[in-house]
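Shipment paperwork, digital attachment
Item: protein structure file
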Amino acid sequence: MEQADEINPRIERKDSMKFNGICLITDDVPGMAAFYKDTLQVEAEGDETTARIHVEGAILDLCSRSAMESLAPGSTEGIGRGGFSIELEVVDTDAVYERLKDKAVLVKPPQTYPWGRRSVWFRDPDGNVLNFFSNR
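Attachment content:
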């Protein structure tokens, strides 16, 4: 049975697909896990090579470059680091800013856009952008 695409119901899809999460490849799994545990106020499970962080609606996995290479040789060739923007919906953008402003690298202070979204951007230790936003 074909399913309509949720974004465009006129597009018929043969396979159902659900986004589950993202895996960031890093050279410092323990450091990144500690950062995300503190920043997102959630638990991180794992070791020196992999970690898993559960956030509402998705999973953030961290994997060392060497562990990824052992799973799929050549898979990390040519990749950079810090190339993602991770969006996290929050209740109060300004409260997140106050809590993190002395703990994380600020990219952009809280700002409200004409379409009503208020966001603040920080960087993780690898340079990925974390966009904490609320829709007002």
